[in-house]
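Hey L., structure's done. Input below.
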Amino acid sequence: MKIRVLLLVGALICVTLSVSGQITYNRGKKKVTISGIISGPDKNPVTGAQIFIDGIKTRYISDDAGKYKIKISRAARKILVYSPESGYNETDINGQTTINLTLNGVNGEKPAFIKNIEMKESSGRTKKVAKPQKMNTYTDIYQMIRSEVPGVVVSGRSIMVQGPNSFFGSSQPLFVVNGAKVNNIDFINPAEVKSIQLLKGSSATIYGLEGANGVISITLFKGSEK
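Output:
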């Protein structure tokens, strides 16, 4: 009788340990939310800073107040924030849920993977940008392009594609919306954008001289796709 009792207790202990281990494993796969404020070397908030987790670029950026919020894996180790105008900073996560970062300035040495990204962006290949996470909000299409499209310089409502020469006395790229050429993109609501393509070099030759300064092709959602 005692032997049966001992065997039953041992079996219960094994089951308990197995279930406990499974719960711990599942918890480890859950995501956590971290947030913070991104500042530049002048201590002012940085808008549109890109968030990298363990060297992988996410679709999250800082807002107009320099704030960001992102869900990450519990196993994530490092967060890096980068802005072409304000530099970068990287730190260990170490279980923190609030991480404020001050960027090091544009003259700071960039991480190798960011240099590789910029080299690929200047190679003349077509760039595609998927619709950003709904968590990110943009005040206008120009802020969206500045944050989501690599290889361009956006100043107010002025856009210049890095690389191409200026033709016709202007450095403004050609805008194409849903396959049609347009004079400007002021009318576009960022929430309506399905995708953006940046064409330059040989990829833009299908538009002839009009595409000499690069082409920004924007596809908007159709009513049935929302």
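The first helix runs from residue 2 to 29. The domain at 31-110 is CATH 2.60.40.1120 (Immunoglobulin-like).

-- N.
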